[in-house]
Write a structure and sequence with these properties.
The protein is of the alpha/beta class.
């Protein structure tokens, strides 16, 4: 498969000096909610959800209605950081929760943060990492100057315990647990980072990586769930629908309050007009969320972790008051496009070849996105979207073909009606998989039998621990 080459013009006065000394060099605040479905906020149709600050960004910015992430956390973050499909990093599921040596190797897969850092940007990430637990995978090794957050997929919002009976809160490379509701801590450190960067007269990229609305479901006033002795993964199975909605809304409010604090800080410091704010989510809402809060994933079928649109279609808002007004776009966009877009917007050159393309022309002028196929794979399924057509290929060799223009809910399987199209799209998937996995730990495997979770469970069934593969070198 051919990847695009990012070859953007260098900064007029030389990348490093220009970035460090020009106060008008644009800033970026990228806010990533966790497990928030397509309609998880009011402006995307979330019934009964109060999100006034996020809604303000949507009312005055560009609202994308055809944006797809992956269906899981770690793969989305790999795509975000590298501009490539996660399979190029040998990832077909989340990074292991039980093997700390499973992660994104910065020496092999450098992130966009390193490129921005080299161009004079100050980079900060507040919150969730989920790209490896060992110190070698630490965000500071990936080009981030500042990090306050946690390594794994989720932590208790109050005690900060992860599912492995450990407190998981860090200040850079040091474990530094501190009291506080996680979303409030993320909000605090985000504002602090902006103030410090402006005081230093340095352009900045801030990645606000939320814990909400991932399980455990805990609002600011709800009790702790996890301790050193007891660390259940979730707490929402027995919640009534009414209780679930109340907690969900409390969690969204804490995130929305943080968006408001960030906005007001940018405005107070006089840098709002020179800052791009993006709000989005890493994947669709969970199936329990869809059951207890119907409509969380909009009108889409399915949920997080699955092959259908409910697992990957997410809100995406682009607010840049200096140039862009309010409009909606239905152009097909993908999480692999963020990395080239960030660099394009910041005027930073990079010659690495990536799968994604810059969204900047579409955002600035409304120009159509280039025609291309968008792929996805995870342990158990593969999909490809080609124009209006989507093929779903699952573990038991079930094939489903949908026309997303006429059947956005994916209710009518047209595979038997269009066998030649099915054949061609299956061939597209196989060629993409072979290309992406070449030289990785996935090479020679299929998406149906790869991933640390599958291998670990196979080991358990055999009564022996499975040997999990190491990161690609």
């Amino acid at each position: 498969m051919n990847k695009k080459t990012i070859a953007l013009p260098m900064l007029a006065l030389g990348g490093l000096a220009m970035a460090q000394n020009d106060p008008q060099h644009p800033n970026v605040v990228f806010i990533l909610a966790d497990d928030m479905g397509f309609s998880g906020i009011h402006c995307y149709g979330g019934e009964g959800i109060d999100s006034p600050n996020i809604d303000y960004l949507a009312e005055n910015g560009i609202v994308a209605t055809n944006f797809r992430a992956t269906a899981l956390s770690s793969p989305t973050r790999v795509c975000l950081m590298t501009g490539n499909y996660a399979q190029r990093a040998g990832l077909n599921h989340i990074f292991s929760e039980v093997d700390p040596m499973d992660g994104l190797d910065p020496a092999v897969h450098p992130s966009f943060a390193k490129v921005l850092q080299a161009a004079g940007y100050r980079t900060g990430i507040m919150g969730k990492w989920h790209l490896g637990q060992d110190i070698m995978f630490n965000p500071l090794n990936h080009g981030w100057d500042v990090w306050h957050g946690y390594t794994m997929g989720n932590i208790d919002f109050h005690t900060h315990y992860n599912t492995q009976h450990r407190i998981d809160w860090w200040d850079g490379r040091e474990e530094a647990d501190e009291p506080g509701y996680v979303t409030y801590l993320i909000n605090k450190y985000s504002v602090q980072f902006i103030r410090e960067s402006v005081a230093m007269e340095q352009p900045f990229f801030l990645f606000v990586s939320e814990n909400a609305v991932h399980v455990p479901m805990q609002g600011p006033n709800d009790p702790p769930l996890r301790t050193a002795e007891v660390c259940p993964y979730r707490n929402d199975q027995d919640m009534t629908d009414q209780e679930y909605r109340r907690v969900y809304q409390d969690m969204v409010k804490a995130v929305d309050d943080g968006v408001g604090q960030i906005y007001q800080t940018l405005k107070e410091l006089g840098v709002l007009d020179n800052t791009l704010i993006i709000y989005t989510s890493d994947n669709g809402g969970e199936s329990i969320a869809a059951q207890k809060y119907p409509g969380n994933n909009g009108y889409f079928r399915g949920a997080k972790g699955g092959p259908y649109e409910g697992g990957c279609r997410v809100p995406a808002i682009f607010y840049y008051p200096k140039e862009w007004g309010h409009r909606m776009t239905m152009e097909p966009m993908s999480v692999i496009d963020y990395m080239p877009t960030f660099l394009d917007f910041c005027g930073v050159s990079n010659a690495r070849k990536v799968d994604g393309v810059s969204l900047l022309s579409t955002l600035r002028t409304g120009a159509p996105m280039p025609e291309r196929k968008l792929f996805a794979a995870q342990t158990g399924f593969q999909t490809v979207v080609d124009g209006d057509w989507k093929l779903v290929w699952t573990r038991d060799d079930t094939i489903e073909l949908f026309n997303l223009f006429t059947d956005r809910n994916e209710e009518h399987n047209l595979a038997d009606k269009y066998p030649e199209r099915v054949k061609a799209m299956k061939a597209d998937i196989q060629a993409w998989w072979d290309d992406c996995t070449k030289g990785t730990r996935l090479e020679g495997k299929t998406t149906f039998n790869s991933g640390w979770m599958v291998e670990m469970m196979a080991g358990r069934q055999q009564g022996a621990g499975a040997q999990r593969p190491q990161p690609a070198k």
